């Protein structure tokens, strides 16, 4: 009876080794992704040019939040150059205090709220050093990666270590997998177009 109870308890509560493995995998994947971003950013010019778009907010915001001269302009510029694609909209919503344009409605408000909250409280001492926009970007990056680690743990609890490990490294192989997916799609299109002609 005690061995059955011990076995049931062992299967109900996963070991700390698996949790540690998931935590290490999640953190390692984020660090690897960050290092790849930094390497490619230094080697190649960015494809997306939306990082340079930074018009003033339509509504008046605190002018104290943007300091014109920062002691670490290279660090601020490196962080701000990471604001591309969707992060432009999230950072703009956090900076301007809400949605300004219709296309911004596609981006849910919880992440900009957290970004704005962290930038004005926890990371407020960094604003004079690197500027408000860089602090917004840093807050968003930190929130996204912490949420990723929590998602990996949740995925582990619901599906196991193997699937959690796949989840942690999934974003890196999507670009490589796209070649095969497109190839399969092209083959299937060719088959559906050409097979009826060959059957005649």
TrEMBL record:
Pfam families assigned to the protein according to its UniProt record, in alphabetical order: Mannosyl_trans2 (PF04188)
Entry's transmembrane regions: 21-40, 105-123, 135-156
Keywords recorded for this protein, A-Z: Endoplasmic reticulum, Glycosyltransferase, GPI-anchor biosynthesis, Membrane, Transferase, Transmembrane, Transmembrane helix
Key word Transferase present: yes
Compartments, as annotated in UniProt: Endoplasmic reticulum membrane
InterPro entries given in the database record: PIG-V/Gpi18
Pathway(s) per entry: Glycolipid biosynthesis; glycosylphosphatidylinositol-anchor biosynthesis
Record's bilayer topology term: Multi-pass membrane protein
A single GO cellular-component term on record: endoplasmic reticulum membrane
Domain of life, source organism: Eukaryota
Gene Ontology MF terms in the entry: alpha-1,6-mannosyltransferase activity; GPI mannosyltransferase activity
Single GO BP term: GPI anchor biosynthetic process
KW Transmembrane helix (keyword) present: yes
Record-listed E.C. numbers: 2.4.1.-
Function statement: Mannosyltransferase involved in glycosylphosphatidylinositol-anchor biosynthesis.
Record family assignment: Belongs to the PIGV family.
Record's protein name: GPI mannosyltransferase 2
């Amino acid at each position: 009876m005690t061995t059955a109870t011990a076995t049931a308890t062992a299967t109900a509560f996963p070991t700390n080794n698996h949790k540690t493995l998931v935590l290490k995998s999640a953190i390692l994947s984020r660090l690897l992704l960050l290092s790849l971003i930094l390497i490619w950013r230094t080697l190649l010019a960015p494809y997306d040019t939306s990082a340079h778009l930074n018009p003033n907010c339509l509504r008046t915001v605190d002018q104290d939040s943007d300091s014109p001269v920062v002691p670490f302009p290279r660090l601020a510029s490196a962080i701000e150059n990471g604001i591309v694609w969707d992060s432009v909209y999230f950072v703009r919503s956090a900076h301007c205090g809400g949605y300004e344009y219709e296309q911004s409605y596609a981006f849910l408000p919880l992440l900009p709220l957290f970004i704005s909250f962290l930038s004005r409280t926890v990371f407020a001492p960094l604003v004079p050093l690197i500027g408000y926009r860089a602090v917004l970007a840093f807050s968003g990056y930190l929130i996204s990666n912490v949420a990723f680690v929590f998602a990996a743990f949740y995925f582990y609890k619901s599906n196991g270590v193997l699937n959690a490990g796949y989840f942690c490294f999934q974003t890196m192989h999507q670009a490589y997998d796209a070649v095969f997916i497109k190839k399969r799609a092209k083959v299937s299109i060719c088959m559906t177009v050409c097979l009826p002609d060959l059957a005649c």
